[in-house]
Amino acid sequence: VQLQACGGGWVQAGDSLRLSCVASISSFSDYHMGWFRRAPGKEREFVATISWSGQTTVYADSVKGRFTISRDNAKNTVYLETDSLIPEDTAVYYCAAATRWATMTVGDDMDYWGKGTQVTVSS
Q: Which residues share a beta bridge with 44?
């Protein structure tokens, strides 16, 4: 199983990026999906999560109103639309999958983690 994240880059404050994560999971729609990030010198931080059906989403307060998580189960892909980026959003962004909803905002006991994609926001 692989989760492959892409779409990161170097942008200026106020710009947008669309991150994608493609999962090579045969039963992708069985999994809740989430995005986490780790900034230099900081702990891993929850960003957003979406339920298996796409009907429920949860966001960290720091990104609420600026980021949007979505998924396309037909494409085995989860997206993170990041708008109005600020320098504090600079981090490596990781996607993750789990069947247990309770773990999605914590990041512990996830079933799968993807390799990250770097987002750098300059002021």
A: 38
Closest of 64, 83, 78 to residue 6, by C-alpha: 78
Tokens standing for residue 1: 């199983």
The strand ranges marked E within the chain are: 3-6, 9-12, 17-23, 32-38, 44-50, 57-59, 67-72, 77-82, 91-98, 112-113, 117-122
Summary mean pLDDT of the chain: 96
For 66-115, the pLDDT digits (tens) are: 999 999 999 999 999 999 999 999 999 999 999 999 889 998 889 999 99
Number of H helices, E strands in the chain: 0, 11
Query: In this structure, are strands 9-12 and 117-122 parallel, antiparallel, or unpaired?
Result: parallel
How far apart are alpha carbons 123 and 111 in whole angstroms? 36
Give me the mean pLDDT over the 32-49 stretch. Answer: 97
CA-to-CA dists, residue 64 to 36, 58, 109, angstroms: 14, 9, 24
